[in-house]
Design brief:
This protein starts with a strand and ends with a helix. The chain has a 6-stranded mixed β-sheet with strand order 1-2-3-4-5-7, covered by helices on one side. Strands 8-9-10-14 form a 4-stranded mixed β-sheet, with no helix packed on it. Strands 6-13 form a two-stranded antiparallel sheet. It is α/β, with parallel strands linked by helices and 232 residues long. Helices cover 22% and strands 24% of the residues. The chain has helices spanning 34-40, 58-61, 64-71, 82-85, 102-112, 189-195, 219-229, and strands at residues 2-4, 11-16, 19-23, 48-52, 75-78, 95-96, 125-127, 140-143, 152-156, 161-165, 169-171, 178-181, 185-186, 206-209. The protein has a single domain (2-229), classed as 4-Layer Sandwich (Metallo-beta-lactamase, Chain A). The mean pLDDT is 94.
Length: 232
């Protein structure tokens, strides 16, 4: 497992038997960081077999279309976020949790990494809840709507890892608050909170969010802390 980015926006590189699955494409500017990160794994773009999106917001689709177009890597996303991934729909009813000086840092990051405009992914493959994906690592899909309609967590049972996308975060990029919490943006925050019940019993020690550092205290404890601090 490798991560692109310092934690503001995360893209993960998962290696299985010498092949790579990318979980989320982060910011468009991560395209320039991708070859070096792969090289640190003794891998190259030729070893990338799939890109799986936890959802289709701008800070997760990143370099996806470029990877698909230039390298022929298929992009997968939950069926309910496919239109957004293709640029046919926009995020709806976005709410924000907290804002502070950290927002200026995030804005500077977004400007530097090309995040002010999303590039539609012209062709995506879709998956549904409960699917085990035929990609390196074979993650199992858990649908966790709320942040977006098609938000998904990806469980690697053998590694006791759970990629949660923005179902929860360990950093609020707008306020700077750290620790397990609801992601700072979302279409339906009540539903996002309710969706946590779908992951809280999963046997995974490591939680890998879209924003913030990994959480190694287990899924159940992360969910407990989110609920404890979540505004109502």
């Amino acid at each position: 497992m490798h991560r692109i980015g310092s934690g503001l926006v995360n893209s993960y590189l998962l290696e299985e038997s010498g092949e790579i699955t990318i979980i989320d494409a982060g910011a468009p500017g991560y395209w320039n960081d991708l070859p070096n990160e792969l090289a640190a794994m003794n891998r190259s773009l030729a070893d990338v077999r799939a890109l799986v999106l936890t959802h289709a917001h701008i800070d997760h689709v990143g370099f996806a279309e470029r990877l698909r177009r230039e390298k022929g890597v298929p992009v997968r996303v939950h069926e309910l976020d496919a239109k957004m991934a293709r640029g046919e729909a926009k995020p709806q009813n976005q709410k924000m949790l907290g804002i502070g000086p950290a927002a200026l840092r995030f804005l500077a990051f977004a400007l530097a990494k090309g995040m002010l405009r999303a590039t539609p992914i012209l062709e995506v493959a879709t998956f549904g809840d409960g699917a085990t994906l035929d990609v390196p690592g074979a993650p199992r899909v858990i649908h966790v709507p709320g942040h977006s309609e098609g938000s998904a967590a990806l469980h690697l049972a053998a590694r006791r890892m759970l990629f949660v996308g923005d179902a929860l975060a360990t950093l609020n990029v707008m306020s700077g608050k750290t620790g397990p919490q609801l992601a700072p943006f979302g279409s339906d925050l009540d539903r996002a909170r309710e969706s946590l019940r779908r992951i809280e019993a999963i046997d995974a020690q490591v939680v890998l969010p879209g924003h913030g550092p990994p959480w190694i205290g287990g899924v159940a404890e992360a969910v407990r802390l989110v609920r404890e601090g979540a505004p109502r």
